[in-house]
Design a protein that fits this description.
mainly alpha; Arc Repressor Mutant, subunit A; three-stranded antiparallel β-sheet; Transcriptional regulator, MarR family
Length: 176
């Protein structure tokens, strides 16, 4: 029996798809489900909305991940690599490579966590040249977001962001 594990539940595949079910019985419901499956909808929305802005980022000489790293640090201040990888939706080894490149270019610095509870954590901060690099893009990102959300109106826009933030909060692993 196939077991599928999620942080909040374990599903038994035998409970999901009955072996004796005919294909035509499964497809209509499955197709409707897949078309409305939350991760698929989030992914589609993300791809459509973000690709518009990513073209602007790349036209300004940054990769999308460099933009995410620099803008995250510019908005949040110093943070550890684990937290940065979570906020930028990237794997730690990938973030480490991007940070090496940005550090060589003088856009970020790494330093020890002298005042924090865990002194083993390396913190990353954006430099003034890094802030300069993303300042205009931050303004462009805010304008892009305004244009994307305008058709929804203020109430729906606020509710959408609140629901998404709640999902993020509920499913984010604790940062150690």
């Amino acid at each position: 029996m196939l077991r599928v594990r999620f942080p909040s539940a374990t599903l038994l595949a035998s409970n999901v798809i009955k072996p004796e079910a005919k294909k035509e019985e499964l497809m209509p419901k499955s197709k409707v489900f897949v078309d409305n499956y939350l991760p698929a909808l989030l992914g589609q929305a993300w791809m459509l909305v973000s690709s518009e802005f990513h073209a602007v980022v790349e036209a300004n000489g940054l990769s999308v991940l460099e933009w995410r790293v620099l803008s995250t640090l510019a908005n949040n201040g110093s943070m550890g690599i684990t937290e940065l990888s979570q906020k930028t939706v990237s794997k730690q080894p990938t973030i480490t490579r991007v940070l090496q490149r940005l550090e060589q270019q003088g856009h970020v610095i790494r330093h020890n966590n002298h005042s924090g509870s865990d002194r083993r954590v390396t913190l990353v901060s954006v430099t003034s040249s890094g802030v300069e690099l993303v300042e205009g893009l931050l303004v462009a990102a805010e304008e892009h977001e305004r244009q994307v959300l305008a058709p929804l109106g203020a109430r729906k826009s606020k509710m959408l962001k609140q629901v998404l933030q709640e999902l993020i909060d509920r499913h984010s692993p604790e940062i150690k």
